[in-house]
Inverse folding.
């Protein structure tokens, strides 16, 4: 009798589960279908018309790049300094944001003896820093400071501090507390405990997240350049604004951007694999 | 007997070497970073930047964002004094209905700016009484302005130019005189005309009045009910463009949701083709992996530029740009998750005689579902932010609107309104997705 009731229970649970997943799938399909048809009607050009034109622009660029021939390599070299500027924006932003993130993480994890009342405050602060759209901060700073790489750098660093801070504090939560206890037994101060008990444990994971963030920040800096922060994005805006005839320059920037991102991507995933072991390299 | 045989596994030389290396590293790394910062300090030209910085703009933006001003303008060519919110023709007070701090007598006026600041306009002469300073007398002539200041140094807040007189003794009071007009700005806190435009029949009504209006059946506009009139008047508010802002926000969210969902649904099947334990063919695996790298490496910036050319402005463009980039990122993550699954469950399902599709459905999918859901939600979160940026590149949505209002920089309260709404939406999406993630994965 009890077994039959149990089976009944399981059956009803399974039915409910199936119903839920059914609703989930239907909801997703509905969102996709209605979303695409709605956005298609909101778009200024329609999907069907665009589809035939889709390869026109890339084709045009490739054609002009082909006609430029070997000169394309010269153009790539010409744009290299701008790419370097974008990389610098990302580099400085990641360094400053990362340093800030370490401070924030150390102040927001119970596991490393952060000051209790501070923990929820710092956590909310990191949430806000993380959610704050980079674009808004960058545009505001461009308005105040003028067009320059610095606004983008500050905007990216601000976001980085929040995003990395959260990841770092998650790492802090999973460390072994024994070294901390050992050090406090010999009377070490909080700073000393962080330096000699916490940092050696978390350093590989921190570095790995740091590299991942650098990768993301390079992309973000390139995009922010397009809205007026200098670097390769600003150059891209210029060449695209010229329209027909500057396809070779646009192509050179595309190639440069693609190669740089790929290179950083591969290097950082290799380094991260070495740092934290292949299994956790993500 | 050597030291090595006495203490096996303990090589003091090697340890010393290691310590030396570490010391060198802890000194070198900060030095390198410092050198890098010095280099970028000059590469970014920060000294020049600090010189060109306009902190006053930030102050203006901050005041303008939380306040509005009312202009009292005397046109010296045509005569007549008018009072208008933000100096806009559509928001001009009717004759005789001007606010009580302005007294208009024909072509002359007395403006009481509170706290002892008083302005008297008679003909083309203006007398500005400033407490603790004295009376400034400015006369507009045919060619410019003549200013008589009280004796002593000229204070910082007065810009005395033969063509234009400009005084702003406090942040919220300003007087400008040129040969053609006299203009007095009086600042007030709050956003003006936020709910309804100045000439709307509903302007200045309180919330209670509006509720009772919505309930009553005496129609203001015979063509539609009061409630729909209220909603209509609010959304079509020409100063604040609530309707357009909401549509733009909706577009941005749509970009993020559609893009992420599409990327996830396309990325999952492709991930099977890229995973070692599901696709034995090296060629297929290699091809799909390079495809992932390719679409990811092209980056959202380039994809959106290409899609804007093909499909024009709109949410579809942004959604496709996000979908293309993230198909690569999500596909890569999913294929890694697939390679790490436990094969025992698949074998168990196979032992019951399941077909290949059933093995995937019951043996594989349940194992990668947590990774799938959590990664998709993470990407949804970050894509809401990305969608605002892509919008600014020209794909539309709230990003484009923000860039445009900033460029015109007419009214900063509009910009701050859009900024606040965007931040609220992004934070809400963030919270919603982390709540959902917790619910779905931690049970």
């Amino acid at each position: 009798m009890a077994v039959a009731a149990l089976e009944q229970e399981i059956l009803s649970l399974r039915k409910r589960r199936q119903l839920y997943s059914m609703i989930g799938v239907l909801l997703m399909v509905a969102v996709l279908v209605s979303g695409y048809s709605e956005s298609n009607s909101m778009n200024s050009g329609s999907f069907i018309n665009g589809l035939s034109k889709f390869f026109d622009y890339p084709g045009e660029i490739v054609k002009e790049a082909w006609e430029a021939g070997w000169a394309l390599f010269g153009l790539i070299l010409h744009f290299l300094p701008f790419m370097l500027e974008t990389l610098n924006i990302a580099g400085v932003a990641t360094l400053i944001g990362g340093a800030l993130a370490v401070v924030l993480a150390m102040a927001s994890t119970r596991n490393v003896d952060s000051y209790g009342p501070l923990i929820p405050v710092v956590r909310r602060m990191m949430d806000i820093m993380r959610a704050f759209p980079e674009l808004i901060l960058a545009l505001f700073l461009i308005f105040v400071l003028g067009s320059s790489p610095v606004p983008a750098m500050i905007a990216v660093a601000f976001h980085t501090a929040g995003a990395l801070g959260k990841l770092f504090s998650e790492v802090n939560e999973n460390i072994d507390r024994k070294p901390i206890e050992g050090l406090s037994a010999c009377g070490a101060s909080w700073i000393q405990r962080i330096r000699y008990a916490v940092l050696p444990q978390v350093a590989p994971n921190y570095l790995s997240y740091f590299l991942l963030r650098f990768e993301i920040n390079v992309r973000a800096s390139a995009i922010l350049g397009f809205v007026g922060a200098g670097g390769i994005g600003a150059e891209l805006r210029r060449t695209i604004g010229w329209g027909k005839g500057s396809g070779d320059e646009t192509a050179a920037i595309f190639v440069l951007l693609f190669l740089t991102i790929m290179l950083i991507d591969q290097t950082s995933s290799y380094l991260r694999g070495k740092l934290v072991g292949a299994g956790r390299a993500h | 007997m050597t030291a090595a045989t006495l203490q096996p596994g303990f090589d003091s030389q090697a340890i010393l070497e290691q310590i030396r290396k570490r010391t060198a590293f802890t000194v070198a790394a900060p030095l390198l970073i410092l050198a890098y910062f010095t280099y970028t300090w000059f590469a970014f030209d920060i000294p020049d930047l600090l010189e060109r910085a306009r902190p006053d703009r930030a102050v203006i933006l901050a005041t303008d964002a939380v306040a509005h001003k009312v202009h009292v303008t005397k046109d010296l060519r045509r005569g007549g004094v008018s009072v208008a919110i933000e100096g806009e023709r559509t928001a001009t007070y009717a004759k005789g209905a001007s606010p009580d701090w302005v007294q208009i007598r024909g072509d002359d006026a007395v403006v009481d700016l509170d706290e002892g600041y008083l302005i008297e306009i008679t003909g083309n002469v203006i007398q500005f009484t400033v407490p603790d300073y004295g009376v400034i007398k400015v006369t507009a002539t045919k060619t410019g302005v003549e200013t008589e200041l009280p004796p002593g140094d000229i204070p910082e807040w007065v810009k005395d130019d033969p063509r234009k007189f400009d005084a702003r003794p406090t942040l919220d009071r300003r007087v400008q005189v040129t040969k053609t007009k006299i203009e007095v700005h009086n600042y007030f806190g709050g956003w003006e005309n936020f709910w309804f435009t100045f000439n709307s029949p509903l302007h200045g009504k309180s919330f209670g009045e509006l509720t009772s209006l919505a309930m009553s059946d005496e129609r203001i506009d015979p063509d539609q009910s009061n409630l729909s009139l209220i909603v209509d008047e609010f959304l079509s508010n020409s100063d604040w463009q609530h309707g357009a802002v909401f549509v733009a926000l909706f577009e941005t969210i749509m970009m993020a949701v559609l893009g992420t969902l599409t990327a996830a649904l396309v990325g999952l099947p492709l991930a099977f083709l890229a995973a070692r334990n599901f696709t034995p063919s090296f060629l297929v695996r290699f091809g799909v992996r390079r495809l992932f790298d390719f679409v990811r490496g092209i980056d959202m910036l380039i994809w959106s530029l290409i899609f804007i050319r093909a499909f024009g402005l709109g949410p579809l463009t942004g959604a496709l740009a996000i979908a293309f980039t993230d198909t690569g990122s999500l596909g890569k993550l999913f294929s890694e998750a697939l390679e790490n699954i436990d094969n025992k469950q698949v074998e168990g399902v196979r032992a019951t005689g399941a077909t290949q599709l059933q093995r995937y459905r019951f043996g594989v999918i349940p194992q990668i579902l947590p990774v799938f859901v959590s990664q998709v939600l993470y990407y949804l979160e970050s894509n809401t932010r990305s969608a605002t940026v892509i919008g600014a590149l020209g794909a539309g949505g709230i990003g484009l609107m923000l860039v445009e209002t900033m460029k015109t920089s007419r009214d900063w309260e509009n910009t701050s309104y859009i900024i606040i709404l965007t931040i609220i939406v992004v934070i809400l999406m963030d919270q919603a997705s982390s709540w959902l993630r917790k619910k779905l994965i931690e049970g």
